[in-house]
Amino acid sequence: MHPAYSVIFFTTASGAGYGALILLGINAMFGHLPADRWLGFAAMGVALGLVTAGLLSSTLHLGHPERAWRAVSQWRSSWLSREGVLALITFVPAGLFGIGWVFAGQTGGVWAWFGGGAAVLSVLTVYATGMIYASLKPIPRWNNRWVTPIYLAFSLATGAIWLYALLRLFGLNPYPLAIFGAVMGAAAWAAKHGYWRFIDSAPATATTGSATGLGDQKPVRLLEAPHLEENYLQREMGFQIARKHAEKLRRVALTCGVIGLVLLLIAAASSGAPGVLAAVAATVLSALGVLVERWLFFAEAKHAVTLYYGNESV
Amino acid sequence: MTSLPRASRGTKLGLVIDLDICVGCHACAVNCKEWNAGGHSAPIIDHNPYDKDPLSVWFNRVHSFEVGEGQESRTVHFPRSCLHCEEPACVTVCPTGASYKREEDGIVLVNADTCIGCKLCSWACPYGAREYDHAEGVMKKCTLCIDRIYNQNLEEVDRVPACVSTCPVNARHFGDLGDPNSEVSRLVAERGGYELMPEMDYKPVNRYLPPRARKVEQAGALSALTPEARDEGGEGSMGTGFLAWVDQMLSR
């Protein structure tokens, strides 16, 4: 599948933003959130900023962005529509929670419940994002049980790391948050490793034989394509460039991710400027690792239509 | 509404394509492009048509496959277009309701006025039936020539999809596959017509008729024309002349 930068940025940025919202909401529910207005402004700014930037970027690949509002109408059947609806609804409790924190200077009471509501809706939104991909049968590398939990795990891990770095900049060191980020990050990368092993060894779902119906125990191969130049289907669904370097890129993603987590733990254990620096570096490396991971998620996914264009199995 | 119609009326309009006689001339694809460039989905514009990397939208493409190996292999020309599935995920994934399946005849269409061009429907189709029109920013697809098959301004004989009307060898048939007594349904029953990628569970309506089995005599005739190294006096040799002829006959 063609890795569209707008969609990669959307899933990684809004993933981290929703992860941060989830953690802020849960901490408010348990009364762990300092009612500092400036901290609230920065934290909600980062969380909602990431979410909003991601959502806006996702409209960039649309042919008619001005019609995007129509996408909230088909929530009965479409995961993309459900994601749109959930993303919009999340803004309501998240906005109220932010108003309470920034303007009223409170994170408890009813404001905490808004935070909790935003957390629940954020989980559902990220789940819906994962399901957009996991529900597509023609792409077996997405249509499996690994995809949605990995989306959720990376969302929580990157959200925790962003938040932790921000709190360090405010002179706080909530080391349980760093440990949560490290554990969740380790789980996410371990699951991603499992996913890679799974897609490498999964048996073919469809073959050129089943796509043409001619394969009854006989080999079927493309003799002549219908056209000499690439068409939309090949550009969008037949992306090949990354597969050659997939192994290297997987190592790059994993290395960035793991170094990010180590830096996070170093930050939690150190104080002052070095700690802050390590926390910021951890955020940057984690974001980089997840960006490469997400790029591979698209580039490595084979679509069934490629069976008509010379690919033997998906 | 992108939810599928709950109670279909049983009519399933579709195509039956005979892979035994398709000669791969691409006339169906060309006539499809010609008709649709002025029909329901018009215009279907070509991007950079006379420049580097041209990109064009076609609803029908003819692929050629080689099936089998060596002397047993054969070339099969394979036209590919929308199969108007009974369970079209391209419709249910649509977030706006622009994609829909008609209740009255099962035809899958796109409303170009409400399509936002998110391309998710093309991801959801394993058959590559949908192509994105970059010029208009919306998704386009085969309409089963909805603007021909119900067109009262055309002679009745012409009220079939453009690809069917143009096929010079009559390899394409149009009709109601929901009616077991229709001509197309009987053709499917007779010839063992099949659906593509049943493992995807989209329940395509269109059927493909398999190439007929090659006749045994013809295979023999082919091998008789092929020069062979003679096996003189070895195990199983029947010598020359009459016995060789017997050998050849018995070996068939």
Under CATH, the topology of the largest domain in chain B can be stated as: Alpha-Beta Plaits
**Largest interface, C-beta within 8 A:** A-B, 58 and 67 residues
How many distinct folded domains of chain A? 1
Report the count of strand segments of chain A: 1
Number of helices of chain A: 10
Number of strands of chain B: 9
| Portion in strands of chain A | under 5%
Amino-to-carboxy terminus distance of chain A: 12 Å
Helix % of chain A is: 55-70%
Enumerate the spans of chain B where pLDDT stays under 50 for 5 or more consecutive residues: none
Shape of chain A: globular
Question: What is the C-alpha radius of gyration of chain A, as a whole number of Å?
Answer: 21 Å
What is the quaternary state of this protein?
heterodimer
Describe this structure in words.
The complex is a heterodimer of chains A (314) and B (252). With 314 residues, chain A is an all-alpha fold. Chain A has one domain: Formate dehydrogenase/DMSO reductase domain (Formate dehydrogenase/DMSO reductase fold, Up-down Bundle). Chain A contains 10 helices and 1 strand, in the order αααααααβααα. Chain A has helices at residues 5-29, 37-58, 79-102, 109-134, 147-169, 175-201, 208-212, 232-237, 241-269, 272-299; one strand at 220-224. In chain A, α1 packs antiparallel against α2 (37-58) and α5 (147-169) packs antiparallel against α10. The radius of gyration of chain A is 21 Å and the shape is globular. Chain B has 252 residues and is of the alpha+beta class. Chain B folds into 2 domains: 13-209, 2-Layer Sandwich (Alpha-Beta Plaits), CATH 3.30.70; 216-251, no CATH class. Chain B has helices spanning 27-36, 89-92, 120-124, 146-149, 162-166, 183-191, 216-225, 242-251, and strands at residues 13-18, 60-67, 74-81, 99-101, 108-110, 130-133, 138-141, 172-176, 207-209. In chain B, the strands form 4 sheets. Chain B has a 3-stranded mixed sheet with strand order 8-1-9. Chain B starts with 12 loop residues before the first strand and ends with a helix. The relative contact order of chain B is 0.20. At the A-B interface, α3, α7, β1 and α8 of A face β2, β3, α2 and α3 of B.
